[in-house]
Amino acid sequence: MSDTTTTLLTLPVLPLPSVVLPGTVVTISLDHDAARAAVEAAGRADGRVVLTAPSATGAGDIGVVARVPNTATLPSGEQAAILQAERRAVLVAIRTSDRGPDHAEVELLTDARPTPRVDGVTRELRIVLEEVAKLRGSRRLPEILRTIAEPGALADAVTAWAEVDGEQARLVLHAVDVEARVTIVSEWAKQHLAELQVSAQIRADVTEGVDKQQRDYLLRQQLTAIRKELGEGDDDVVGEYRTKLDELRPHLPEKTAAFVAKEIDRLERMSQQSPEHSWVRTWLDRLFELPWATRTPDQLELDGARAQLDADHYGLEDVKDRIVEFLAVRKLRADRGVTDDSRAAGTVMTLVGPPGVGKTSLGESIAKAMGRNFVRVALGGVRDEAEIRGHRRTYVGSQPGRIVRALIEAGSMNPVVLLDEVDKVSPGGWGGDPTAALLEVLDPAQNHTFRDHYLEVELDLSQVVFIATANVADTIPAPLLDRMDLIRLDGYTDDEKVFIAQRYLLPRQLGRAGLTADEVIVGDDALRTTISGYTREAGVRSLERELGKLARKVAAKVATGTQIPPVHVDSPAVREWLGRAKVDDSIPERTNVPGIATGLAVTGMGGDVLFIETTAFPLAQDGEP
What we know:
By secondary structure, this protein is an alpha/beta fold. It has 21 helices and 17 strands. The strands form five sheets. Strands 1-3-4-5-6 form a five-stranded mixed beta barrel.
């Protein structure tokens, strides 16, 4: 607390709409009776008034004693007065009057001598204000710092110069204690300095960025001119895109062509330094990679298709018949000129069966039989809807979905797309449900307007032949299953496996081992022993692995000279080459034992025979065992 001396005075009251601090000079308009009466009363006395703020409530409030040195008439005809605010004063009592101005009895306040603490706070305030003056480029503030030495007067002058809000000015006015007043102004000055420094840094960063862009633009223009003078071809990227668009325009839908042209125009107007420039270029590159103008003609010769299927697969007559029926419908519709825009007649063929029965290779055979390009899309473990529909361009590293990438890989707009392991698609989570995204792809009534999130244009998938594969149909969601035509592949019998091994598997494994068919001769009995003792499956994948193991062992013997070709492998020699049997086929022995019943278990991996055993217990007299 400061030691403040007081003096009592009675002065007319002049209310003002804003706070006026000591040491300031203001001009007011005498447009209301109270102000005019107060100024006239001051003129009849010693020329002083007490100024009150709008927040003043009466006795005990702080006002400012001001002198009225002069009054004048403005060009507009209004009366005005000049006020020189001098000192703070406490309103002790206010006397109202109906015939003249209100008068107040006030105690004049005089600031006490500054203490060392006040001097320290004032020095810190001056340092901050010097930085503020530099950042604001002010001429008035350095003059205030140079001419005013008293801490209290300096705080008042800085507050008046800064034109702070009414609440801040009221706090300074009511700070009778000099240390408190200087502290309030110092806190405001530090906050204001921080704001100015942030603004200056932002302005410097923006200016630096603009200057760099202008410099880069001028250098690129000069580089373009130099290349032109040297006869070097400039990178007319926009021109190349427009040329590609003109070539593809007959094959593009009207809306798609208009959208691409709009993006090319945006690219032309865009600065190369803009991040969006590379995004638009990447988008255009992906769009033009699509084979819009390429469609392979269908080969719908049914005899040739059946021959192709027979050459690639043995057995599976029901499956082959269904595929030939599918091709026959397409051939008949093409021959009779039935053009149905309800998109791709029929539903999606789904091959359901255990592993190793040839589902994927059947898809390849269908593509060969139709003369179309083939592409496989692995869906096992896919858990994000964006994997199917693509990521939106707003994300960094976004790319088209798997369907669009499959068309780019196939190189035509009407390939055979194999959706492999559709039963192993992960259920929907935070990334969306991929099975729901497949509904639009596989529904013939919707896929003619398929929209990839990355490309944002409509794609016609109605000419694409989709074939799905699955081990079990139970895990396929019902809405997706409703759009599929299930074709079940139950597996091969032992006789079919022997034929497949002799015709397909063994020659392939011998070739991989560097052997010929004349060097290794495997009898049918040896193949049956391998099938029954070393594999238990519906397909032939494990059988091929065992034949590969046999071929490698024979190749090792031949390469080291311990075995001279030809090598004959019969049933007893299988154990010598492949080791101890892995499967014990005890069905004949166990079914002949009393007390054993048989059952059949069918799973996605195939099936097996179950043995249910019973045991007889002697009964006691009461019937309990």
